[in-house]
Amino acid sequence: MYDKRFKSFLKISEFFAKYYDVISFDFRGHGKSGGTYTFTSKEIMDTDAVVRFARKNKYNKIYLLGFSLGAAIAAIYASKSISIDKVILVSAPTDFSKIENQMWKKEAWAETFKKFELDRFASIRPYPILLKKIKPIDVVDKIKIPTLFISGKKDPTVHFWHTRELYEKAVCIKNTKNIKTAFTQKTYFCAMKTIF
What we know:
The chain is an alpha/beta fold. The chain has a single domain (7-192), classed as Alpha/Beta hydrolase fold, catalytic domain (Rossmann fold). The chain has seven helices and four strands; from the N terminus they run ααβαβααβαβα. It has a four-stranded parallel β-sheet, with helices on both faces. The longest helix is centred in the first third of the chain and has 13 residues, at 44-56. The two termini are 25 Å apart.
């Protein structure tokens, strides 16, 4: 749920670009994208536009990597599409309404202040959260492609139990990784190697 220009996402993209072609994009209502963010209600269309772009440009293998609500969107998309080959879900919530909203905790703001990116949240233009949402827990068993579930022990917003429940319900080829320290690009890459 952030602008792709922020340092943490740029670093992840740059790291993976050493091994893969990377397409980073902002969902509607983020960064320079138009519209308003619907908290997973309509963002599946944004994902589909990017996947179609990649297919049109002759990419034979397409992997999705999503974080938090982006991971929820990737899970929903993977459950409905045969256009992608593998998916990585980092801290995907089971259900939007069950996210542990702990924005008041220092852990939720530490990275923002550490990187001096105070406009991270200001770059989001939200739509009222009342729109109907698909719950990842209701569709994860429809994912047919290899899926890697990653959770962080220190995640202040989407606790580990979300990943555990999604992983347990999934019936695809799957693997899981619980990262006990801070997420880093190398951590993601090492976790990816367990399934990809």
